[in-house]
Amino acid sequence: MNRPSALVFAILGAAVLLPGCGAYGRNRWSDARDIFTAGVGCGGGAMAQAGPVATGAGVFFDTLGLSGGHLGLHDADLFDFPRGAEYFLVAGHRATPKVPEVVRRGKGYEATVLLVLLPEREPGEKGRAPVPSCMTQVELDVGLFYSIRLGFNPGELLDFLLGLAGADIYLDDVETDDAGSPDPAAAPGVPG
Q1: Domain co-membership, 21 together with 94
Q2: What is the per-residue pLDDT across 11-64, written as a single tens digit (0 to 9) for each?
């Protein structure tokens, strides 16, 4: 098995096995979901993002998929343009779905794009990460009437791998055990 296949297999294996392992497992499961973005919706055009740089031309309303670690329906408001949409034509607007889970984990943002992403972030339960995860996203949105979004976040992959040892670089490990204490795997002195 080659290295990329082994890495994908390890992430999928962890994603299946870890949710049953208390707060530690739920936090790793959340970190695994953050690595990839996949969604379908409506709109048209083409947009691309590589780290903090984003460009394209189009209007997109995501309605279903995996974004910001949230899997499910997204609150795409077709009647609240421009806030309900992501759009580009020289400058633009990007955002995460407005669901409590995304906001709680500090993944919520709206960004003005002037070739470079300028995010306005909502703090999560543990505050704001020094570098927002949206700045390490690599993503492509394309469509004509119906749209598809695919993305990968190397920063979130690093957060997942370091999280196996208890580190939390994006301050998004907010799950607690049943007694309400924080993730017991977090190392002392390491945000987690």
Answers
A1: no
A2: 666 655 555 568 888 889 889 999 999 989 888 899 898 999 888 888 887 778
Domain check: are 123 and 105 in the same one? Answer: yes
Looking at the structure, tell me whether residues 109 and 74 fall in a common domain.
yes
pTM for the model stands at: 0.76
Terminal C-alpha separation, the chain: 33
* 18: amino acid identity, one letter: L
- Domain housing 192: 1-35+153-192
Domains: count for the chain: 2
Which position has the token pair 């598809």?
148
